Structures are given as structure tokens and as C-alpha cells.
Amino acid sequence: MPQINLLPWREELRKQRNKEFGISAAVAVLLMGAVVAGVHYHFQERIAFQQKRNAFLEAEIAKLDQKIKQIQQIDAEKQRLLARMQIIQKLQSSRPEIVHLFDEFVRTIPEGVYFTNITQKGRDLKIQGVAQSNARVSTLMRQMEASDYLENPALVEIVAGSQKIAGTEEEVRLSRFQLNIKQEDQKKAEEEGDKSS
Q: Right CATH number for 110-196 from 3.80.10, 3.30.1360, 3.30.420, 2.60.40?
């Protein structure tokens, strides 16, 4: 006789499959959660590592910035010292020039002429003086033109007048003059002399 199963086996099979599906889904969710957590943890570690590297680089950059500032300060100090050295060397080399200049004044000034004021700006000289005549001023300018230390004398003005001699009533005719002249640069003159020879 054939056996007939009257038990609700389909329902039990459905429940069994639903149960297996639930377990499979739970396992899949757990595995997915583990994978997501692992990936998240991995990237968090990578971010933390990169942040440490960035912090290290920033610290080193700050140290280098400090060194660059120190180098710039040292360079500025060096430039100031070089400028001072150049000024000192220039003063050292031009020290004998004033001696030559006054010596040249003594050699070029003719009798009957004397200076009342000498002003110098760079190599330009402004001379004010008194002469017994206009001819003596011309002689002075010719002698200055022939000098090795003076060049380009230019008469600005000459005014004739008279002055009383101290202690007497006698008056002397005098010419007050002003002239501009340049002090010749001896280094250039020596260099030009060396080139020509």
C-alpha cells in the first residue's frame, strides 16, 4: 500500500529554508561588516600614518624656515660689512688726495691772491677768494688748468671793489671772485697713463 505523508512537510521545508537563509544572510552581514570595519581600520591607519608624515614634514619645514631666516640675516650683515669695508677702503685710498689738493693750491696760487672759502662736494670744489686784480685770477685759473690734480676751472663771478688797509686810511683795489673746479681722480689718471704707455 502506498504511503501518504499527511504531515505539513512543505511548510517545514519552507521554515527550514527560511532559517538557512536567515543564517546565511546574518553570516553575510557579519562578513560584510567585518570587511567594512577592516577597510575602515586600514584607511584610518593610513590616514594616521600620513598625518604623522605631514607633521614631521611641517616640523622640518619650520626648522628650514628658521635656518633660511638666519642665512638671510647673515647675508644682510655680510652686505653691511662689505659696504663698510668699501667705504673704509675708499677713505684709505682718498686720504692722500686732500694732501695733494692743498699742496696743489699752494703751488698754483699766484702772489696777490688768497682764498676766503673752499667748499667740496664729492670731486667738485667751490672756491671764493680775493685777488689784487683780474689778471691774477686769470693766472690762477691757467695754473689750475695746467695742474695734475685740478681740472676744468670755471669762473662764476668776479666783482671789483676796494678795501681799507687795517690801521690806515689807505684803500686797496681788490677783486672778489668765485670759481668752480673739479678735483681730478688720480686713479683714473693713473689707469689712463698705464693704457697709453
A: 3.30.1360
